[in-house]
Amino acid sequence: RTTMKSLRFISAEAFVSNAAFARKSLGAVAHDLFPLLFKASYLLEQGEVIHDLVENWPLFDFNMGKLLEATLDYQEDLSHRTCSVCLESCLTGLRDYVLNQSSPYMKKLKVVDLTGIKDVEVQFCKCKKTMGRWARTQLLSKLCSELLVYLQQAQCNPGTFEISINVLIDLFVTERNYELVVQALLKKCSCPLKICCVAFRSDNLTLQKFFYIIKLTDPSLLRKLEIVHNVHLEMEHLEILFNSIHFPLLMSLTLPARTFNVRRFTATDEQMLSNIGEKMGEMTQLTELSMSFSILTGRIQKLLSPLKTPLKMLDVSNCSLNHADMPYLANSFHANHLEALDLSGHDIPELYPSTFFKLLSHCSSVLRSLTLEDCNIQDTNVNMLILGLSPCQKLQEFKFVGNPLSSQALKHLFTFLCELPMLKNVEFPVPRDCYPIGITYPIDDASLCRFDHQKYERVAEELNLILLQANREDVKASTPLFGSYDAAVQETNNELGAYLIKSFKETLEKFATSFNKMS
To answer: What is the mean pLDDT of residues 440-458?
Structure first.
């Protein structure tokens, strides 16, 4: 597929393709052409030109998302290209913008917005080397610290110290880059480049470090907070967090697994849960909530009813919801607004078929993403599922891996899915008949890959043929056995793996010590 380019864009490409000439000629370029040249340079991965464009940026703001989005000159959106060459050139160019005292342009830049960059699985840049969110956090923090050291040691123009640029970024902090980010945030006042954290993700961090750094980020600006793997945040810690810090602009909250466990609740815990619900109710912008792998049986209403703004995204996968929770969700004011819903890990056909379909009918006019993994959806439930999904005309994504469906049932379902006009992504299970007879669901990790791969390939081809014959080449169908792609996990999997091995080793040592004492 070729994207149309305007004559202006073709000219911009020709100009930047000769890096030496372009860099030498930048002083004669009109200000309003800088955005055009930036996108052309980004497309061609002309790192040196990108650096010089940013170093001499003549405008008040530099917004990556807007600069790379589809434009009349070039209708392809490049914001999903996290090309390492381009992004490193951008950030070093930003540092040199502060240091460059001979630039012919007056320094007007006030805001740099890096939040529009999207991390995706397939990269189209030539260098094939990406710079993910963690690496961007690392590099920006490093450049801010180096900039301060240089300014303190060198004889700089007094005007350099008057430069103040807010750099909006989605920070991603783990144990490995924690110290560097803390130093950059602590010295924010003195540094011309001021890190403004709009979204914060924390993985593999002790609670003490998490509480310290979250206060440094200026939580009053935070729109998205993700506390994910290996941050041992439990309900009492969450109550402390919400009591000690206000998040007035928070729109999206992701909590780690096992934050809540109602099976060991006391009267004090019930009160604590109510307090957390009330605190979330004060977050008037909150529209996205993810609480997967917590045990919330019978407590969804207590947690969600204080919210004053309807949720657009709710992830309660593997939360052991019961007969009280589903009717509350189906009848709550959230139901009519849910654009993304994840109910994975619940036996929907067995436990609450009618209330689930009631919930689906209430959100059908806005629902864009539905995830029903490991929900015990069988062949006998397919017709009901089709009936429930039929009004969901805005559905873009449907994930249902881990369900015991036969090849025949999948073909029947795919024939229907072709009729959903907005559908773009389907994640379907390995058919039940590809596994040995007698396999039990949910399938354990050890048995997950023990299926007839040749038969699966034949079925997958047939399913894709159904899409093809319905002129739905725009729909991507896949079977991610070990979960959907997660850019953040992909980028830091070595660190997470090392942490898990260390935790396992420590557990074994404790067990051995206890065993020796008993002996």
So the answer is: 95
Residue indicated by tokens 């189209």:
124
Cα distance between residue 174 and residue 178, in whole Å: 6
DSSP string of 9-34, one letter each residue: HHHHHHHHHSHHHHHHHGGGS-GGGH
d(CA 322, CA 351): 8
In the chain, what's the furthest Cα-to-Cα distance? 83
pLDDT at 101 over 90: no
Q: Secondary structure of 312-377 in the HEC alphabet?
A: CEEECCCCCCCCCHHHHHHHCCCHHHCCEEECCCCCHHHHCHHHHHHHHHHHCCCCCEEECCCCCC
Q: pLDDT digit string (tens) for 274-333?
A: 999 999 999 999 999 999 999 999 999 999 999 999 999 999 999 999 999 999 999 999
Q: What is the pTM of this model?
A: 0.92
Residue ranges per structural domain of the chain: 7-131, 339-484
- Per residue in 8-59, pLDDT (tens digit) is 999 999 999 999 999 999 999 999 999 999 999 999 999 999 999 999 999 9
The four Cα atoms 145, 150, 153, 154 give a dihedral, to 10 degrees, of -160
| CB neighbour class for 274 (10 Å; exposed up to 12, middle 13-18, buried from 19) | middle
173 DSSP β-pair partners: 202
* Distance separating the N- and C-terminal Cα atoms of the chain: 71
2 alpha carbon, distance to own chain's centre = 29
Question: Out of 3.80.10, 3.40.50, 3.10.450, 2.60.40, which CATH number does the structure's domain 339-484 have?
Answer: 3.80.10
Q: How far apart are CA 516 and CA 458, in angstroms?
A: 55
Q: How many CA atoms lie within 13 A of 423 on its CB side?
A: 27
For residues 98 and 192, give the distance between their C-alpha atoms in angstroms, rounded to a whole number. 7
Produce one character per residue of 340-373: b if its CB has 16 or more CB atoms within 10 Å, e if not.
Answer: bbbbbbbebbebbeebbbbbbbbbbeebbbbbbb
